[in-house]
Amino acid sequence: MALDEAIIIALSSTMNMVLVQSLVQQMDQMMPHNDTGENTTLLWIIIILLLVIIAYLWFMGVRKKPQILPIQESEINVIEPETIETDKIEVALRLLNDNEKQIVQALIEHRGTMLQKDISNELEMTRVQTHRAIQSLIERDIVTSEDHFNTKKITLADWLIQ
User: Fold this and answer.
1) Whether residue 56 has pLDDT greater than 50
2) Is 144 strand, coil or helix?
3) Model's pTM, two decimal places?
């Protein structure tokens, strides 16, 4: 819009310059011929001032930053939590590596609780592999571990079972 206003102002100032020139010419005809230097100087001063004003308005119009319009609530797509239907275990399994997936699936098959030595034996994993995978699952809060004699009892987290 500022550019349109600058164009309109430029056109109106051009028309003003034409009117000023015609007035100066009419005044030249009425006045003695030896004073035309002052009239020409006055005309050039008016033209330069108009050009400076037009340039100022044009640059100020170009520099204006666009206004940020507020977003109406009808434009926002809000997803309600109850509309998201994903199985928690399925999502958790996607984020795990192979050993961790095997352990979680074995825990699911055994109703959420197993001994660590039974996990190693059933999945044919070394004790170190089993320990590292279980530690990773504990850090992610997918399983919990508690001492059970000389081994550990591994249980799925409550948030996965519900």
Assistant:
1) yes
2) strand
3) 0.48
Q: How far apart are the first and last CA of the chain?
A: 59
Six-digit token string for 108 = 């699911």
116 closest CA partner among 135, 101, 97: 135
Counting Cβ atoms within 10 Å, is residue 34 exposed (0-12), middle (13-18) or buried (19+)? exposed
In angstroms, the CA 95 to CA 115 distance is 23
Asked if residue 28 lies in contact with residue 39, where contact means CB atoms within 8 angstroms, the answer is yes
CB 20 within 8 A of CB 43: yes
In this structure, the dihedral spanned by the alpha carbons of residues 128, 129, 134 and 140, taken in order and rounded to 10 degrees, is 120
For the CA atoms of 50, 55, 61, 65, the dihedral, rounded to the nearest 10 degrees, stands at -150
φ, ψ (nearest 5 deg) of residue 143: -130, 165
Single-letter code of the amino acid located at 23: L
As a dihedral over the C-alpha atoms of residue 39, residue 43, residue 46, residue 48, rounded to 10 degrees, the angle is -130
CATH of domain 87-161: 1.10.10.10
Question: CB-hemisphere CA count at 13 Å for 121?
Answer: 6
Taking only the tens place, the pLDDT of each residue in 90-143 is 888 888 999 999 999 999 899 889 999 999 999 999 999 999 999 999 999 999
